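Exercise 3.2. Students should predict the tertiary structure of the chain below and write it as structure tokens, then compare their answer with the key that follows.

Predict this chain's 3D structure.
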Amino acid sequence: MFNDIGPLELVTLIVLAVLVFGPDKLPKVIQDVTRTIRKIREFSESAKNDIREELGPEFKDFEFEDLNPKTFIRKQLDNEDLGLKEIRNGFDLKKEMAEVTDAVHSRDSDTSSSSSSGSSDGRIDMTKKPELPDRDDRPPFDMDAT
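Answer key:
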């Protein structure tokens, strides 16, 4: 419950509790707090048991921790019946990206070999400015259409 509290925070809480409640009332406050925490845990366990009974025998191994999305996904990915490990292992993102890159470079080299504007290795020269089409190639501008 208090796994992330360090020693300095614990000492600070103790000193603060002594200052707020005083040394003579502190034991009674601690007993009341522990009793309240115990009652809350008992209530929580009885509610969980009631829910399990209402769900029936098909949910006898149901755990409430499975409602956490991370835990649910982790358990589903570890399930061998679904075959998700084979799908996950069969998908290689680097390989797919390399194939796409090769396909793009081969298409660029095909178009660049037919025109003289490309380089010989299929790469695009980013230092050149793009060639603008001639003004005669554009369709006429229609003022009424805009």
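Discussion points: The mean pLDDT is 77. The two ends are 68 Å apart (CA to CA).
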